[in-house]
Amino acid sequence: MRKRMTKSHTNRMLTGTIAGIAEYFEIDPTIARVIFVFLNLVLVGTPIFFYILLVLIVPKGNSGESAYRENYERPRRTKAQRRRADIEEEENWSDF
């Protein structure tokens, strides 16, 4: 699966753009924010223009809740499916 840069929903200050960039490059978001502030001091505010541009361009990612659901929750089973699974489990169980 191809990795995409998206805004972070779990670790955001304003829009989640810098945290999304940090997640994409697999670095700590705090380090990315410190780098951004340092670049603003050195380049006299030019990175703010690029930040606004990225806010408009970078798409929103999955919210934390939907990402959790996609990765961890099992699909719900009907009562008949649960009963069938219980019966199959009992048939396969033995003392030996």
SSE layout and pairings?
Blueprint: H1 17-24, H2 29-42, H3 46-57, H4 64-72, H5 79-92
Could you walk me through the main structural features you see in this protein, from its secondary elements to its overall organization?
By secondary structure, this protein is an all-alpha fold. Helix content is 59%, strand content 0%. The protein is built from 5 helices and no strands. Helix 1 (17-24) crosses helix 2. The chain is rod-shaped, with a radius of gyration of 23 Å. The two termini are 43 Å apart. 9% of the residues are buried. The mean pLDDT is 81.
Enumerate how many helices there are, as a single number: 5
List the uncertain runs. Answer: none
> What Rg is obtained from the alpha carbons, in whole angstroms?
23 Å
Strand content: under 5%
Shape: rod-shaped
Series of H and E elements: HHHHH
Structural class determined from secondary elements: mainly alpha
Quantity of strands, as a count: 0
How would a textbook summarize the main sheet? none
State the share of residues found in helices, binned by percent: 55-70%
> Termini, distance in Å?
43 Å
Mean of all residue-level pLDDT scores = 81
Short description:
With 96 residues, the chain is mainly alpha-helical. The chain contains five helices and no strands. It is rod-shaped and about 70 Å long.
Based on the model shown, name its key terms.
single chain, 96 residues, mainly alpha, 5 helices, 59% helix
